[in-house]
Design brief:
Largest sheet: 4 strands, antiparallel
Number of helices: 2
Strand order of the largest sheet: 1-2-3-4
Oligomer: single chain
Distance between the termini: 48 Å
CATH topology of one domain: Nuclear Transport Factor 2, Chain: A
CATH architecture of one domain: Roll
Number of strands: 4
Shape: flat
């Protein structure tokens, strides 16, 4: 936590904060859901939260800029897992989905 006065709580020095503000946005990936589809293949979803910072931030505006979902395919290569295909589907504030994305993950009745 910043501003406590305890030097152990100061996570970022002022130069680091200036550097991060200059980047303009932060992309946070969370909630990785991976399903094995074969001995050397898998598919997964990864949620994206994109925030604007620094000069991109507008007075009184919400820093949350996008919510999205990465749709990924993985392949085991030389003993390690690699992303073999990736697409990004935006769900908020504007919905932009790749063809078939919802059908692929909507449970059938």
């Amino acid at each position: 936590m910043l501003g406590t006065g305890d030097p152990h709580d100061e996570l970022l020095d002022i130069e680091s904060i200036k550097y991060l503000r200059a980047l303009g946005s932060k992309h946070l990936e969370t909630n990785h859901v991976i399903e094995l589809t074969g001995p050397d293949t898998a598919s997964g979803l990864v949620y994206l939260l994109a925030f604007v910072t620094g000069d991109m931030m507008r007075e009184g505006d919400d820093p949350l800029y996008w919510l999205g979902v990465y749709d990924e395919q993985y392949r085991r290569v030389d003993g390690g897992w690699r992303i073999s295909k990736q697409s990004l589907n935006f769900v908020w504030p504007q919905r932009m989905l790749n063809d078939g994305f919802l059908d692929q993950y909507t449970p059938s009745s």
